[in-house]
Each structure stands twice: as C-alpha cells, then as structure tokens.
Amino acid sequence: LPALERTMDIHNNQRHRHILRATILSDAPPHVIKDVINRFPDSINTPDCSGKYPIDIAVQHGLTWDGGMEDIVEAFASAEETTELNVCSKHGVKWENGMVNMMQRSHVVDIVERMEVSTGLYPFMLAAVGEKYSYDLGSIYHLIKSSPKLVQHFGADNVEEKFSGKRKRSFVEKIFAFAIFK
C-alpha cells in the first residue's frame, strides 16, 4: 500500500481517488478494504464519473457485512455526518446483509424514529426511495414494523379506511399495509 499511496498523491485531484471502488470490485479481503479506507479517507465519499459512491458499488457488488461492508458504512456515515442506519437505508443495504445488524444495536431504536436532516425523511422512507438509490423490501418492512410511533404519526388510526378504496396503491402504501396488518 505505501507505493500505491505515493501514486495516489501524484494525482491529488479528487476525481482520481477511486482506489476503494477498485478494491471492492476486485474482491479484496476485508482487512485490505479497511486499510484502504484508513490510508485514503477521501476515497470513501468520492463519487465516480457516474455519481456512485463506494457504498453504492459495495451494495451492487454484493459485498458482505463481514467482508468489508461494515467498515464502508461506518466510514461513510462518519464522512457524511449521519448515522450508519441512515446510510444503510439510503443506499439499499439488504436486510440480511447489514440492516439486521444495525437494528440489533441498542441506540438504533431512537434513530429509527428520527428524521434524517439532509433529506427530511425517516429511515423507512429513505429505504423506500428506490429511484436514485436502490432499495431493499426486507429493510423497509422491518423499519416500518420497528417504528409504531411513525405509523401512528402518518395516520395509522384510519389505515384500513385509506387502503380499502379502489385506487391503485403506491409502493410505500403497500408496505405500510403489509406491516400493519401482519
């Protein structure tokens, strides 16, 4: 890594800091991913020419939680000054590949019911965006199920009334209905 570090310093422009992406795509072992994050901290929040961050590449590539995803999530959350749960929600980390780990942490209960500042969305909403970011249905379901206060906030008192009409339901409405009536 020292030789690589010198090479990276030659190209001090942010566009050339895609070493983490290359590390993920080459299926590097977790300790190498962690070393790259530590030696090249700017690489964690530098998008590529498509606007994708290393977290997006890791999710698309199917990087496992123990295979380096946890380190990427922690570093990205720190760099973006947000919570790890919000990073997982926003970038489509699959339920079985990290979100379940996030939900098992004791401090997450409060975060699930806290709006993310930059978007104004709650974690279950971030997880359901699906347009710019990818989404995971399992994560959306478990986030909704774990936050009954939010369901009440969005009108759970008359949910049956809202969903009994003949109009076509949106994706999020279907998730709400599934989580509430399970």
Give an overview of the whole structure.
With 182 residues, the chain is mainly alpha-helical. It is 58% helix and 0% strand. It is built from 13 helices and no strands. The protein is elongated.
Instruction: Please state the overall shape, judged from the principal axes of the Cα atoms.
Output: elongated
Task: Tell me the strand percentage band.
Answer: under 5%
Average pLDDT over all residues: 77
Number of helices: 13
Give the class from helix and strand content and strand pairing. mainly alpha
**CA radius of gyration:** 19 Å
Order of helices and strands: HHHHHHHHHHHHH
Main beta-sheet annotation: none
Spans of at least 5 consecutive residues with low confidence: 156-160
The portion of residues assigned to helices is: 55-70%
How far is it from the N-terminal to the C-terminal residue, by CA? Answer: 51 Å
Task: State the total count of DSSP E strands.
Answer: 0
